[in-house]
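Write out the 3D structure for:
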Amino acid sequence: MTERGAHVKFRAGPKAICTMMAGRCIRISRMIPHTPSRLPAAFCYTERMARDLSSYKILVVDDEADARSFICAVLEDNGATVLEASDGDAALEVARREKPDLITLDITMPGKDGGAVFEELRKDPALLDTPVCIISAHPDLRRLIYQRTVPPPDGYLDKPIDEKGLLLNVRKTLTLARRRHAK
C-alpha cells in the first residue's frame, strides 16, 4: 500500500491496483500479471484459492467501467471465467448466449436499468434459475427489486464494494443455487 496526499493505492489482487480517496475506490488499474516470486507475500494467492471459482462463468453487468473492472479483476483472480456487459440490452444478449452460472447486476444504468433486466431474466424460462446478485450504490432502490412480481434476487451487495464482501456474497449465492438445483 502506498499513500500520495489524500490518495491511497493498494493491490486489489494480483491483477489490479485500486486507488482510494476518502475510503472509496475511485480508480482500478489492471496490471500485467507478475510471477508469484515478485509479489509481496501478503498478496500471493494460493493455488487452491485461485481455483475456488474456476468452474464458474460469471456475467458482470455495470455501466461504470471502474466498478466493472474491479469486480472482473477480483473474480478472475479467484479463477472465474468472466463475461462483461455495460448496459441492460447487452446483458440480456450475453446471458441468453452464454448461460452464465451467476450474474452480478447494477440497478442504475442508462437505457434498460437493472430492475427491468432482472425482471426479464426471471421471466425468461432459459434464464429463470440463473442466480442474480444485485450490486447498487443506492440502497434505497432495493425495494424496487423486492416489490416486483418475480422471485427476489439471490444476493444483494451495496456499493462501494470490497474484495472480501464481493467474494463472500458470490460464493454464498453460488452455493445456495447449487443446493437448490441438487434437490
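The CA atoms of residues 11 and 99 lie 31 Å apart.
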